């Protein structure tokens, strides 16, 4: 039957659409097979920073009054992704050939004749082409009979083996295709430094550990042929040659107390009376803290730890010697130590809109839990640790080799928001231990201690150092010696025991409460009974409060450093007395000072 012009146009249109779809599929495979461009450290650290903010399981309805919720970024999945395009196209061609070979076979009509329009019959006749040639026809019939018999025999064998010819054929083709796919898609052994290794080296270098970055790249098996790794090593070695050794005695130390997420609420004297003045004087707001980090980063400060500054070495005679370390930074960079006091989330702060507990977030790092005054629970960046983590995720060069801040604990209310102290044990007898009142019994005290140990481990893994702030927050230079020993022993029993369980080591940092030292500016000696008692407990690093930009004393077997409080009162007097005590850290303190504060800020 002749095909109409309309039918021909319709079939041509269908063929064009089919060809276009096939082309799109091939191009899609090419796009998917393209290798992903290597990502720089800035993007990598930006992706890593987004995971630090999480909402509570109970959900949140709105931001606390006066505080903006941080936007939560979706963290894209990153993977090293490369498909074997040639293998896919080869398999596609094979599949297509198989389909064409089947579809191009003419369908047989009755009596084995081809359907009209799909093939030709071949006739062989006599002189006029009117009759069959018997000499050809007889052998042909015999051949057909033999072929039919052979087919029946093959079918019987297939039934005996448990499958039809079609199933066996399909299985064979499928198995062959799978085997071919496995062979062609098997990943080739990597010779050049992987994307992850290059990223690790980049982070090490960003945090000034150039030796570790160089060693990591050079230890790759094919470093000699890896141009990209060689270029990175050359860059790191050039930067390393420009580094400047930090003067240990010119490293400043700044500190904070628990941060205020909602100062309008916390500083309301109608709710908290005289305590609101204490918050105003001694605390820093979340907004102020974030601005301080930005300003210190802009001015070239880099966080270092006390253990980065110096370390203890055992001498041949069994004595100890404190040895200064080499902190090497690029020109214009300056080391700074940071600490936070009273990270216990005291009971008296409940209801004043502060974080109330440190927990482990979904990313395995420490974060904070907060219950606002109406009972709604939140999880997120409401205190120093998670805020600092977020900032360093974005700016890894703000941290020297991963160092962050020192976290200091008293003991009388437990630590980290967990009521772990023995005074919370049911049946506690306050007369049996010297001083301290019995607290409301905590029936979950053992579970709280276990959780506190987990958080301590996470803090140390995250780059934080741990410190004593005494057990009872007493003036360690003024209390009598009996009470001094009792306090040290109580802290050792109730807090150091948890730190040792978490780290395997005794705590060796003492941050004096109230800023009061056990000695004047003269060097410590073991003739000082209080220093010697703390030394026997394992302490080697001691920090007081001093208004100078920096004050460091390197003794034979200890380090002593002064600290500056970046709180409401110190910012207020810096703005109004004209002495500019903080001008090495900030260009304009008034731009940092939170307008939500009540003024004037009183001393406390």
Structure description:
Residues 1-13, 15-132 and 160-183 have low confidence and may be disordered. The termini are far apart. The chain is of the alpha/beta class and 604 residues long. Helix 2 (41-50) packs antiparallel against helix 14 (384-394) and helix 6 packs antiparallel against helix 7. The radius of gyration is 38 Å and the shape is globular. Helix content is 40%, strand content 12%. Among the domains are: 195-240, no CATH class; 246-591, Alpha-Beta Barrel (TIM Barrel), CATH 3.20.20.370. Strands 2, 3, 7, 11, 12, 13, 14, 15 and 16 form a 9-stranded mixed beta sheet that branches. Strands 8-9-10 form a 3-stranded antiparallel beta sheet. The protein has 18 helices and 16 strands.
